[in-house]
Write a structure and sequence with these properties.
Strand 5, helix 3 and strand 6 form a beta-alpha-beta unit. The longest helix has 12 residues, at 121-132. This protein has helices spanning 9-14, 29-32, 92-100, 121-132, 160-168; strands spanning 6-7, 18-24, 41-50, 56-69, 76-90, 111-114, 119-120. By secondary structure, the chain is α+β, with helices and mostly antiparallel strands. Bound molecules: zinc ion.
Amino acid sequence: MDARPFIDSLDFAGNGRQISGEIPVAGLPRLLDALEDSQGILQYTVRGGADKQGNPLLDVSITGSCRLRCQRCLSAMEHTVRLDTRLLLRDQANLDALDGDVAGGEEEAFDSILAEVHLDVLCLLEEEILLSLPFAPKHEFGACQAADGGNMQKEEKNPFAVLVKLKRN
Ligand SMILES: [Zn+2]
């Protein structure tokens, strides 16, 4: 495995640099806490650039898969990661100002991160993936191993219920 990548974020954005690579899910300990197991590999690309106003930013894209735990049947489920996000680089004073100014206009649709000189790329990716995970993941109906298959098949529960009804009539 490559050495853990770090970037000088403002320099990276200013020079339109790009970094890409592959990380096994097993290499992201904070993410692992949220997963069923350590299976899966993620591909990432981080591109530096600027928006129309010239503000430095990073375009982050992550694809791959990992395994979550279905909240209905508590067994593993495949989760496809497909993430494209734009992060504006701000200095600390900028970020503090943003906190107090919620109505910041349309440009604030993008998230902002601190423009670090020694930005830990994997840490950034891990954070973005964590934010993107579903809060209560569940299998699709039919694919779930829960007793009812994730479906509402209440009628099939007790075939004798019908007989009981007939007898009473
Ligand atoms: Zn399930």
